[in-house]
Specification:
By secondary structure, this protein is an alpha/beta fold. It has six helices and twelve strands. It has a seven-stranded parallel sheet with strand order 1-4-5-6-7-8-10. A three-stranded mixed sheet has the order 9-11-12. The chain binds iron/sulfur cluster.
């Protein structure tokens, strides 16, 4: 597994961005997250060592833009070069998440056709209105590997209309002292939708405030993922 952040910075885009950990982390360091800048790692996928081998070894998943959004407007001038690198490294699998799926068709390269085999796109939705808006766009897009990410999930979401083309649904709560609570019933409800449609399901993290059987629990950040794993409900 490798991380690749060719640029940094992002703008809050919707309700799910309210307690964005990138903004919180930058604020602590006095960095303006709204300033979108290229990083020194821009060419990481094609960087080579002294022997002439790629530094990122073949066969790995590369998590792309996990501290920004690959489809953000300011990166339009840089993205074509990224696609070239993604093409060159067909031996790697690139995964990016976006809250800006409506920009997808204007961000793809000329030879995209029905999608690159080595790219997975995760469409992030946090509530029903954004699920209906973004997933109705996502559904028809030519992408070989599609995931839906409901994290942070801030209300009950019905995905039934949008499950036919996706490989994986990820669900998770919000992490923040002011986080909106995650109700375990919503998680189980999505799990049931996945079961009916035969789609993989992963409960990735609880929320800081987690409601189960009508009782609200407050969890530490470090136990959000382990508690989700303990639920043992992945499909
Ligand atoms: S799109 Fe992602 S990285 Fe950008 S502000 Fe929203 S949560 Fe943060």
């Amino acid at each position: 597994m490798a991380m690749w952040n060719p640029w940094r910075g992002c703008h809050r885009h919707s309700e799910g961005c309210k307690y964005c950990y990138i903004h919180k982390g930058d604020a602590r360091k006095g960095i303006d997250t709204n300033n979108i800048v290229k990083t020194d790692n821009f060419y990481a996928p094609i960087a080579k060592n002294k022997r002439g081998d790629y530094k990122i070894k073949s066969g790995q998943n590369v998590y792309l833009c996990f501290s920004t959004d690959f489809l953000i407007e300011e990166a339009d001038i840089w993205r074509d070069e990224c696609w070239e690198m993604i093409k060159e490294r067909s031996d790697l699998h690139f995964i990016f998440l976006t809250k800006r799926i409506e920009r997808f068709t204007e961000c793809i390269p000329d030879d995209w056709n029905d999608g690159y085999e080595n790219v997975t796109v995760g469409c992030t939705v946090e509530n029903q209105s954004n699920a209906d808006y973004r997933l109705s766009v996502f559904n028809g897009l030519p992408i070989k590997h599609k995931n839906i990410i409901c994290q942070p999930m801030i209300e009950k979401i019905n995905l039934e209309l949008y499950l036919s083309e996706v490989e994986l649904i990820v669900v998770g709560g919000e992490s923040d002292k002011n986080a909106r609570p995650l109700n375990y019933d919503w998680v189980l409800d999505i799990r049931e939708q996945c079961k009916v449609s035969n789609v993989r399901f992963e409960f990735r993290q609880c929320g800081t405030y987690f409601i189960k059987d009508g009782k609200e629990y407050t969890l530490n950040t470090r136990e959000l993922c382990s508690q989700a794993r303990k639920a043992n409900i992945n499909l």
